[in-house]
Design a protein that fits this description.
alpha+beta, C8orf32 fold, 6-stranded antiparallel β-sheet, 5-stranded antiparallel β-sheet, about 45% helix
């Protein structure tokens, strides 16, 4: 009993260690971990107490549910409990209120969420249910290995909520807890047999590892290593041209304190259908304000633009002023903006491009740095939640004529060096070459690429993307021509780089509806666009996403919306069909495919910026279902093949055939969980089964025939006549199965005990062989390495 208590306690600790991935969902570790730990301890204590009182499995499980109810009542009854502990009528009413409030908090908050009472209550109930399931596996079913299921759930549940990669290090605490549980359980099982001995008969000390235990730990370590490495080798199923998420050590902050994770907190929580207001911006600019930038992505890999952003070495405190180099040949105007953030909790400040200074509160001004390379203001330690600040910025009036005068960017410049690298993909090279053919200036090349992403070329704004797993993300987008801002921005930036021109992707917010508080900043306004570098002009913004998909979309003179009817672009002369499109989906569309069916194109609601819309996942679900089905039916199929092989011996070998048929009958009894003594004679066993199960007809005749065949094979040369052995086994097996419950019959077909037990013994033998081989190898190695001799003389 003492060791069983120890196993239960270790299982509880393993469950709490498995909660590590929840740290990226909930803020305030102690705010939610203490109630969860208290509830888990109460449930484990109830289970241990029930076992001490010799309660059966049903009462033990009910005791754990009662402990969960008492814990929730004591913590969340809100005065509705009897004597402060027992649930009353008002208790369950308050539970319902908390559940409803949790749903509202999920809709309103951004991840990581605040540890409100409602959300913590929801977490306590969920972890409490997993604690009960864990204790059932450990104490009731006595199969601690199944605890891996709730631990795996704790790691997988955050995945659909975050839309980002969960740091693999958060898998390690749960894995270590699981290994600790398995080790504790195996020590308990070994001690039930008394004192342990080594292979040469030497007694093993209490904590001295045995070869078998050492082999088990070695195999367990390999399994955990495989669990960590294999997911990194599996190709992703999403269709994003903006690559993975930073590992995150806090809200949008990298674990090393220097790497920023731009996507980490930009998403609306749980893919809610309505956007959440995150702030307001006021500006004295009347119109065409542009977009508020937060990040600039420069690293391009085969997976797309990586959002693992690090500030450059040129960064300096923002309070010293924002220095930007720009030509004086372009007309410009100076404006001032004021920003108040209410719900945006990130490590970057949304600001219009080419800000010249920013006014921050004194208590936080030294925590924010300006990076002149990316033209962004970020912090390694602070977040923007609740901040208010003002800044001055310059709005440059670019024109076609002026930008055409820009010379090619020097290959020695920093902008070229940091923003022209790209993977070699033949289809992208070919398409880019066709688009820029005959274009003399950098502006005309960029304009031709920009205009390519239009409805007449078959591009549509869609919330669902298509993907061919054999191709890269950019090839899929350029092939199917359906996506949202992330795909459009990344594809254009990639093609501009392919043309040898510096380009990067900017992330930020478009100004939303104008209210008395200023332009509303909403989670629906998160957006991605492109910035192209022009020598002498700086970074010039381009937005290739159709205006119908961008809340707060703004047009520009140098990059007008190519979907407008009056837009004419000389860069499309190379298209392959008479209607100006270069695929069958182009041509003369009666309705702009980038508009809603009702024609209200500009009211089309985009998703939050970080909404990761995956490629169709049904092939993976189908493959998983097929594998699961295969795993379920495999034992039954193997058992059937074994039966056929045993009953297929020729009549020329009567002794072997009779012995094999009798062995098949015994295995059938094992599958049906019918007990028998192997020392019992064949005739005695047959008569007992006929009497105990009241068999008659073919079933009784089959048993008698098999018993007679077994006796004749041992004591007489001639087998009995009448039924064949195959028919006798079939009749006996069906007759005995008919006397069992449907569940017993199904269990015998899907999980035949005779086969599974033979597999288990095979695994034990294999494990023992590995352990023995490892021991022999260690001894051989020890003989090769001479021992150090003492040099002390006496």
């Amino acid at each position: 009993m003492k060791q069983q208590r120890m196993t239960s306690l270790v299982a509880g600790v393993a469950l709490l260690l498995g909660c590590a991935p929840l740290t990226v969902i909930y803020r305030g570790l102690f705010d939610w971990m203490i109630p969860v730990a208290f509830t888990t301890a109460l449930i484990i204590g109830a289970s241990v107490g029930a076992r001490a009182l010799r309660w059966n499995a049903v009462l033990q499980t009910l005791a754990m549910f009662a402990a969960l109810l008492l814990s929730c009542t004591w913590q969340y009854s809100n005065g509705g409990a009897l004597l402060g502990l027992l649930p009353g009528p008002g208790t369950f009413k308050n539970f319902g209120v908390l559940m409803g409030q949790a749903g509202e908090d999920i809709q309103k908050q951004l991840i990581p969420v605040e540890s409100t009472q409602a959300l913590v209550f929801l977490l306590v109930v969920g972890i409490g249910a997993l604690a009960i399931l864990t204790e059932v596996f450990v104490s009731v079913m006595r199969i601690p290995a199944l605890v891996g299921i709730p631990l795996l759930l704790l790691y997988l549940i955050p995945m659909p909520l975050l839309k980002q990669e969960i740091p693999w290090l958060l898998f390690v605490p749960g894995a270590l807890g699981f290994l600790w549980l398995l080790m504790t359980d195996n020590i308990d099982r070994v001690r039930r047999y008394g004192r342990r001995f080594s292979g040469d008969g030497r007694g093993i000390d209490r904590w001295e590892p045995s070869p078998l235990a050492g082999t088990g730990r070695w195999l367990a370590g390999l399994v955990v290593l495989a669990a960590l490495v294999l997911p990194l080798m599996v190709p992703g199923v999403n269709s994003n041209l903006l690559a993975g998420i930073g590992t995150g050590g806090g809200p949008g902050i990298g674990g090393d304190g220097s790497t920023l994770a731009p996507w980490a907190n930009l998403e609306g929580s749980l893919n809610k259908t309505s956007g959440a207001v995150v702030g307001y911006v006021k500006t004295n600019q009347k119109s065409d304000t542009g977009y508020l930038k937060m990040y600039a992505l420069s690293e391009l890999t085969e997976d797309g633009f990586s959002d693992k952003v690090s500030p450059s070495s040129l960064s300096y405190p923002a309070e010293e002023g924002l220095r930007t180099d720009h030509t004086e040949e372009v007309e410009s105007d100076e404006y001032r903006a004021e920003v108040r953030l209410t719900g945006l909790d990130n490590n970057a400040l949304p600001m219009f491009s080419y800000a010249t200074n920013v006014d921050l509160d004194r208590d936080v001004s030294d925590e924010w740095d300006f990076d002149p390379v990316s033209d962004t203001v970020t912090s390694k330690d602070a977040t923007s939640k609740g901040m208010s600040y003002a800044f001055d910025y310059t709005r440059y009036q670019y024109t076609d004529k002026a930008l055409r005068t820009a010379p090619d960017v020097s290959e020695n410049s920093e902008a070229y060096r940091l923003n022209t690298d790209r993977p070699a993909i033949k289809s992208v090279k070919k398409l880019t070459k066709e688009r820029i053919a005959g274009k003399e200036t950098q502006f005309d090349k960029v304009r031709s690429i920009f205009s390519y992403f239009s409805s007449k070329n078959g591009f549509k704004y869609e919330l669902q993307t298509k993907a061919d797993n054999s191709a890269s993300d950019i090839e899929n987008f350029l092939k199917y021509r359906e996506g949202y801002c992330q795909q459009y921005a990344a594809a254009m930036g990639w093609m501009v780089r392919e043309a040898g021109i510096p380009a990067r992707v900017a992330l930020g917010i478009t100004p939303g509806a104008k209210t008395s508080k200023g332009y509303e900043l909403n989670t629906d306004n998160f957006h991605a666009w492109v910035e192209v570098y022009y020598e002498g002009f700086g970074w010039v913004p381009y937005d290739p996403t159709p205006a119908s998909g961008v809340a707060g979309s703004q047009d520009s003179d140098w990059a007008p919306d190519p979907n407008k009817p009056d837009e004419s672009d000389s860069g499309d002369e190379g298209n392959n069909n008479e209607n100006g499109g270069d695929n069958e989906q182009g041509g003369n569309n009666e309705q702009n495919p980038n508009q809603r069916p009702d024609g209200s194109g500009n009211t089309y609601k985009p998703p939050p910026l970080a909404a990761r819309l995956p490629a169709p996942t049904w092939p993976y679900w189908l493959a998983g279902a097929a594998l699961a089905s295969l795993a379920v039916i495999t034992p039954g199929v193997v058992r059937s093949l074994r039966r056929n092989r045993r009953l297929s011996l020729p009549d020329s070998r009567p002794e072997a055939a009779a012995e094999s048929a009798w062995r098949e009958l015994c295995d059938s009894l094992t599958d049906l969980r019918i007990r028998f003594d192997e020392s019992e004679t064949a005739r005695s066993l047959a008569n007992r089964l006929i009497g105990e199960y009241q068999l008659d007809g073919a079933a009784a005749a089959g048993l008698r025939h098999l018993a007679a065949a077994q006796e004749h094979s041992r004591y007489a040369p001639a087998p009995p006549t009448g039924l064949t052995l195959r028919k006798a086994v079939r009749a006996a097996r069906f007759g005995l199965a008919a006397r069992q419950s449907r569940f017993a019959q199904l269990r015998a077909d899907l999980a035949p005990a005779s086969l599974l037990s033979s597999w288990a013994w095979g695994l034990r033998d294999a494990s023992s062989s590995v352990g023995n081989a490892r021991t022999r190898g260690a001894r051989a190695l020890g003989r090769l390495i001479p021992r150090r001799r003492s040099t002390v003389t006496r």
